[in-house]
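Appendix B, Record 12. Input sequence as logged:
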Amino acid sequence: MAKKSVASLQTGSKRLTKAIKMVKSDKTGAYTFVESILDPSKVKEYLSKK
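Logged structural output:
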C-alpha cells in the first residue's frame, strides 16, 4: 500500500521529487510513513517496491 504524495523540489540545475510511502510493520501491524527524495523517473519504481 502506498500513499503517493509527490512534491517537486528543485536544487540548482537538478530536479528532484519527494515521495512518501505508507509501510505496514510486520511486528505491530501499524503503518509508518517513509519519505525519500529521488529522481522523478524513479518514483514509480520506489512506490511499487515493498
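The longest strand covers residues 14-24.
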